[in-house]
## 1
Amino acid sequence: MTNITVSLEWAKKLKEAGWPQGKGYFYRVVDKTWYQEECEPRRRWVAKGYQFYSLPTAEEILRELPQTMDGYRLTIYPIWDVGAWCVTYLAPDHTPHEALEIDYVDKSLANAAAEMWIYLKKNNLLPN
């Protein structure tokens, strides 16, 4: 799971930014120890001090990103020489979106996608 889902750090950032925390896979944090598991956070666990963070996959996050923005297309590509992924918006001639001036690179595609989703969410650029 760790190679297709966000890290615990990005799961926390997604939750803070408003990523849905419904059913599915979660990080469950108990006394600074974390577990990845499929569950539904239960009130009794939360009352005991357990923390839960939704654990979305790269695909789940990418499906929530707009496919186009002002004529720029969502573009995802590997950067082979550094072993990372880039998530950005490019024009048809491959120039970057000037207003956004963003591209997110991480060794994990899920983390790079999470960073883009958080940026768009904070800047009110996600569709309702």
Note: The chain has two domains: 8-56, 60-122.
## 2
Amino acid sequence: MNAYIQILDIVKTSLDDNTNINTVVTAEEMSAENSANVFPLAEVIIETGELRQQVTFLKIRISCVDILTNVSEIVEDKFYGGTNREDIYNEMLAACRSVFDDLVNDKYTKDIVIVGVADIEKVENKKDGAIGWAIDFDIEVQSTVNRI
């Protein structure tokens, strides 16, 4: 049975194909020290799930974030302010949507099924100034256990 690796590979491939993402990691803490080459960043976390008869359900969370920076030119519009905040939220939401659509539309495999709907929420990491979106959803994979 290789459900865990299979899902990680598919999600990583989808995120690697996304022009809004530079780096894909699994449950690692990234710092802003090397952010020039790392961000925009996608983090894939699979921590829980369920085993049922011939089916494995895994709960997956994908966070897509970038570093908030000040805009160099003077901004007259008080609504958007002097940062790239809205641009980041827009691009990271598009990245989350893209990977979800790839999985729903079987772009990389027909072996997995999205169960239910995806929940999304804004992400703000005060430590390194990264902001963006996280998407949570459940995946169903048919169990293929080879027995001797």
Note: Residues 23 and 41 are 5 Å apart (CA to CA).
